[in-house]
Amino acid sequence: MANNEQCKNHDNEDWFVETGVLNSDQCRLTIKIGRKLIEKQSKYQNILAFENEKFGRCLVLDDAIQCTELDECSYQEMISFLPLNIHPNPERVLIIGGGDGGVAREVAKHPLVKHVVQCEIDSEVVEISKKYLPFMGVGFENEKLKLFFQDGYEYVRNHKNEFDVIITDSSDPKGPATTLYQSEYYQALYECLRHDGIICCQAESYWFDLEFIKNLFHKVQQIFPSLAYASTAVASYPSGQIGFLIASKSKTVDFKHAKHQEKFQKIAEKLRYYSPEMHSSAFILPMFVQRQLDQVLNNP
Ligand code: SPM
């Protein structure tokens, strides 16, 4: 055993074992470490990058897989284009977290986006991504982007009425990301948004974390008049599924139908996962999930 999340099998091969999730008694994911690229402890977290034959290059923060070359598109494209194609005119976008660069890469592609500000707490994740994960690190090269190394909550608290869309691309609610799941943070997001602004936040898996998601819905509906959960499939996450909490300042928002289709068509061939059809289908949830979320929404 090298440490908690790395172990050897009977053939003496190194394997990564995910333990850094919310319900680590149930959730497990194992990926063979073909070649370790780097492992280091930053001021905020443990950062590991390695290669696997099937998944390609992988990024792990504090024992939890963040992204792999194989399937990162399903997360980065959906967390970006769902809110950007719900908002009527998403010119100014704020990304909180997202240190690998994948969300910045996607957001900057959108034809209506003019300015992107990103606030990431850990500069070492950015440096590692640029060096070892250039398919995502390339996101930091876009001239629409201004990058700050700062605590996301602090940034949001100090900026009022500035953004059309705010994306919170955080790791799980442990360690440096904990504050990004608290009521005070959602209140600050509300105030940081312009008229009709929209937030889209990493919101865990309905298979393992439904109580957590219900609790999040309960908090956010005290602040935003409209909210929904959208789902995507990520093969390298322990349940293979993750979702996003999307909330709008507008009372009459149509979450399910993608706007801007004509302009968006120009970038469609650069995408691997998102389409207007995937957009609509993300809001169709299994009955047991929909019932439970409706129950929260109907009892504010
Ligand atoms: N830019 C991609 C970063 C990914 N951020 C989300 C990572 C979530 C990892 N854990 C998923 C397990 C669900 N409990």
TrEMBL record:
Record-level GO cellular component terms: cytosol
Keywords: Polyamine biosynthesis, Transferase
Listed GO biological process terms: spermidine biosynthetic process
Keyword DNA-binding: no
InterPro entries in alphabetical order: PABS, PABS_CS, SAM-dependent_MTases_sf, Spermi_synthase, Spermidine_synt_N, Spermidine_synt_N_sf
Family: Belongs to the spermidine/spermine synthase family.
Protein name in the entry: Spermidine synthase-like protein
Organism: Dermatophagoides farinae (American house dust mite)
